[in-house]
Amino acid sequence: MKTIIEPFKIKSVEPIRFTTKEERQQVIEKAGYNTFLLHADDVLIDLLTDSGTSAMSSEQWAGIMRGDESYAGSKSFYKFEEAVKKITGMKHIIPTHQGRAAEKILFFIVGGSGKYFPNNTHFDTTRANIEFTNAEAVDILIEEGKHPEVRADFKGNMDVAQLKRFINEKGNENIPLCMLTVTNNSGGGQPVSMQNIKEVKEVCVKHGIPLFLDACRFAENAYFIKKREKGYENKSVLAIAQEIFSYADGATMSAKKDALVNIGGFLALNDDELAMQCRNLLIVTEGFLTYGGLAGRDLEAVAQGLEEVLDEHYLQYRIRSVEYLGEKLILAGVPIIEPPGGHAIYIDAKRFLPHVPPEEFPGQSIVCELYIEGGIRAVEIGSVMFGKYDKEGKLIPPPMELVRLAIPRRVYTQSHIDYVIEVILEVFQNKDRLRGYKIIYEAPMLRHFTALFEPIRK
Ligand code: P71
What we know:
Elements: H1 21-30, E1 45-46, H2 58-66, H3 75-88, E2 92-96, H4 99-110, E3 116-119, H5 124-131, E4 136-139, H6 160-170, E5 178-181, H7 194-206, E6 211-214, H8 218-228, H9 237-246, E7 250-254, E8 265-269, H10 272-285, H11 296-308, H12 312-331, E9 344-348, H13 349-352, H14 362-374, E10 376-377, E11 379-381, H15 383-386, E12 388-389, E13 395-396, E14 402-406, H16 414-429, E15 437-441, E16 452-455
Parallel strand pairs: 1-10, 3-4, 5-6, 6-7
Antiparallel strand pairs: 2-8, 7-8, 9-14, 11-14, 12-13, 15-16
Bound molecules: ligand P71.
């Protein structure tokens, strides 16, 4: 087998700025040791997120010029609608400016106190939008998915037996919908199998609960199904994606991931009544029905991106380039979630820094060190992002303490990734020197975006 290469050549480049370690030490201190608060210009390799950071193709840029900016009934909207319908098969396609806007509209309507929303694992914005309505967001992930070192093909699967128990306990009348996040971002970018989607759907049908997808990374999930699930090896990724959506009654999507654009999203629905309610809210908060907070040109770029993301050469390169980073780290003994996920590598901070307890945010410590050592920006997905407090103000940590290295789509080359590996290995060698952090400021919701930290000096 020959090297799997980037299935594109580069037409336009963007310089990255080099800084010294001393500069980075000052800059991160000034940012309160929170990488969200860094100036991107001070970052060399930006692995904060794969969201909105894709490089667009020449065809997408051409679409930007073709964008029809009519307020109502834009030609670009119909192109967008057709592209989304082709994949999702859904009846109502509602554009939104990004994923969380779709979530906000949906949960504002179906949420409220006394309601429960099960998911394999809610991502932070989904959880926040549910909790904002005083409803409860509940994670029902299979046990394997909670153990970084356990290798399994579909660690994003929902625990179906537990879902059944949950429905019996809470009552289906209190569960307006059940969600599946494909791939499971908070759990390591791990895919959900078609078998699991079908089983969850069956349970939902039996109890009259609609099934929704959080579909940000549906193409990566579909590719994993093709590679790992029996019976799908000869199906096209498009056909697999269509089958995934065929089991869903609705979907929220951040187009900033698998639609290969810098901004955009949508809500897709089959239910006429719910769609009408969502559209009414859309007009109040996002914009008219045919643009939903986006420009016509953005809709063009999404339509084109949805076509390109299902190209199997692209997906082969995409999944392989993430796996390449993971393989090299595993080989060097760095603990990561195994197997590598679709859009990111997740360092297991608990095993990387066993001497730093969750209350001292081991993930945040690694994130800061990666920046200081090599100008690499990553993000903590652990007690900073998902930690809660009990009545006594004691931290309730989530099951895993992770550092995510998210790989923007079509942006970095193999030598960028080789450099990232070198920096991680250097930090790993010096891990005993790393110390924990404490929070000195935090917002009441989604605190990770703006929290300020201080190193704990013992
Ligand atoms: C990611 C993001 C973007 C992000 C959000 C919060 C903190 C840091 C980075 C966004 C997702 C997502 C899933 C599964 C919904 C959203 C919201 N992910 N569901 O992973 O991963 O989409 O950003 O377009 O509003 O870095 P949105």
